[in-house]
Amino acid sequence: MLFEQVCIIGLGLIGASLAQAIRDRQLVGRLVAVDRHAPSIEAAIADDVIDAGSDSLFDVVAGSDCIIVAVPVKTVGAVFKDIEQTMRQGLIEEDGIISDVSSTKLNVVEAAKEVFKQLPSGFVPAHPIAGAEQSGYNARRSNLFVNHSLIICELKTTDPEAIDKMANLWEGVGATIMKMGVEHHDAVLAYTSHLPHLLAFNLVEQLASHDDNMDIFRYAAGGFRDFTRIAASDPVMWHDIFIANKPALINALDEYSKYLSELRSLIVNEDSTQLLGLLGRAQSARKHFGHMLTSTPYTKKLTDPSNTDNSMATSNQASSAYIITPSTTINGSMTVPGDKSISHRSIMFGSLAEGVTKVTGFLEGEDALATLQAFRDMGVTIEGPENGEVTIHGVGINGLKPSKTPLYMGNSGTTMRLLSGILAAQPFDSVLTGDASLSKRPMERVAKPLREMGATLQTTGERGTAPISITGSDKRGSKLQGITYDMPVASAQVKSCLLLAGLWAEGKTTVIQPEISRDHTERMLSAFGYDVEVEGNKISVVGGGQLTACDIAVPADISSAAFFMVAAAIAKDSEITITKVGMNPTRTGVIDILKLMNADITISNETFVGGEPVADITIKSSQLKGIQIPEELVPLAIDEFPVLFIAASCAEGQTLLTGAKELRVKESDRIAVMADGLTQLGVDCTVTEDGIIIEGKGGNNSEAVFGGAEIYSHHDHRIAMSFSVASLRASDTIKIEGVETVNTSFPGFAELCNRLGMNIEVKSV
Ligand code: S3P
């Protein structure tokens, strides 16, 4: 039992719901209530919600070790006076808990000070962020607080034990505890609750005063109804709240008026770019903050925030799984979504260019959307994406504005590393954050050379991970300097980061890569009219130039095509054609490796789209053989190894991979995670420091190679998709947990697999 006896004063919606919730969960010994409205007390006793009740505190309070004041804000002071008297009369202990549920806090604390003189040690101001339009005892709901926040305002005078006890009670009824100062609470609530209610009441009033008000209400569309839903709330309660929280509310209202008049002038001036920018930012901001608060991916469905007051922050924790029943063949012709690397860069370069860039074939996956959102946050107007089309109204090389919040990169390493280069050169400060997987990945690989260029930036923790804090050049007082950097690893992200920083640096920035890595940055810089010097493995840019907008057609992603290439190769009687796949020679390592393994691959319809070579790839069932993978192919197939390990498991003989240490710092440690999964599925493999040895099981393509297993993806999209492909040679069901990250690079993956003959059921868990 959390308390011997709780006394709830006020059986309105919140008080009665709390009583019911406490009762249903049997959290306290005895529950008593006070309400001036006798029928509510009678009903609560009859419904067995409370043990005793009265219209007077003095009748029932004796023995209560917790009193919760749930009356309108205006009457809190009068109730405190009664409580103070019962204390003096010895009906309750002086150190007992006194709490409340009011939606404004400063006035409650002031009222308590006036009555008690010295604030009692058991005084715990609290506020559940929950409610409904209906009020009164009969509107009570036992689950009203489940997954809602309960704010506790910590006071110096309060005993921490009292705070813990109150927190336990609210957690017991399903709430999530948040703590904040009194003033901060009132300011936050002014913005998130009081201002929206005020606007809803005001809009109804405005329209109701029109002469043709009947027509306005008769034809009122969804917008009016949705916007004014909360104007059905209790006027007395809101009157009291508006007055009680006057300073913070007036502040919020003044700011609102300023924004409204700015919006008005955008319409008057028909400033489409700015107007679209504002509307686009607002449209995505709601969803964006929801993901940021929960560190979840963008395409993960958020609970509709309009149903509850704070579901944005709490109820999005579910993840999904694939349950895959074995299948044997896969056939058909298909396209796969746009290239992830090119999609990222199209947003970055388009934003920094002069003029309007139109992108087609844009990958509407999490990672590229994170980049898009980041540039919106920095004031760029971006239309779309819609059916792969995005229009970017470039702000020019010096046109980015500081984001008002930390930039959230979701799962995307490319966004974080490339943006670090861009932001290190900006005059303003920035903070870059990401989800759980991204927050484990090494960021010093870009931070270190950027510091050599004169940037000031800080990574987090011993392992140099996100969040990254970047100090703007204004504070630093100096521009970046061009350097020559000998890269220790063949990383396109590090190379691109430095070349991008180099656009603002004084002089020449040169990157020397130990081996060729993907060259989309170099190609796209040229497409946007920026001079890039490429001499073998040495790439240079000179700072101070401009980018000029151009149209970008994003080819299909060869990394996504790879799953179907391996699928067709390992399955029986299969043939797959993937059309218009990007064939940039710095990305085709997977084709070379599969060919070395004896895969039956044909390339046709070779052409160019937007400066990148594309072609159709046809691949048939093949008798694969194990090989030693040439090290120079590793950077050219860096993202395809997880699925190549599946191919190797189905090959005759051993496959040996070396020089692939980089795989350990991808979205997961892809060597360790793949080895675990393969072992679970019955494949022998040995992990080495920089690679893996896989004992292929061979056989003809009708024989199962894998058993069944439950595999965890470690938030890594490519792990999830690779093990899905294994189901074509499995004898039993493969369950893959944590597959929501597939949306980072391949929205619609499971649906496409099923269309081609596989059997994937997607389940929310
Ligand atoms: C990418 C580069 C590669 C790759 C990643 C995308 C890029 O990373 O793994 O998926 O777009 O530049 P590294 O540069 O770290 O090898």
TrEMBL record:
Broad class of where this protein is predominantly found: cytoplasm
Keywords: Amino-acid biosynthesis, Aromatic amino acid biosynthesis, Cytoplasm, NAD, Oxidoreductase, Transferase, Tyrosine biosynthesis
Position of the signal peptide: none
Compartments reported by the entry: Cytoplasm
A GO BP annotation: chorismate biosynthetic process
A Pfam cross-reference name: EPSP_synthase
Cross-referenced InterPro entries: 6-PGluconate_DH-like_C_sf, Enolpyruvate_Tfrase_dom, Enolpyruvate_Tfrase_sf, EPSP_synthase, EPSP_synthase_CS, NAD(P)-bd_dom_sf, PDH_C, PDH_N
Annotated residues for binding of 3-phosphoshikimate: 340-341, 345, 491, 493, 639, 666
Ligand binding (phosphoenolpyruvate): 340, 413, 441, 493, 670, 718
Record's function text: Catalyzes the transfer of the enolpyruvyl moiety of phosphoenolpyruvate (PEP) to the 5-hydroxyl of shikimate-3-phosphate (S3P) to produce enolpyruvyl shikimate-3-phosphate and inorganic phosphate.
HAMAP family in alphabetical order: EPSP_synth
Name of the featured protein: 3-phosphoshikimate 1-carboxyvinyltransferase
Organism: Psychrobacter piechaudii
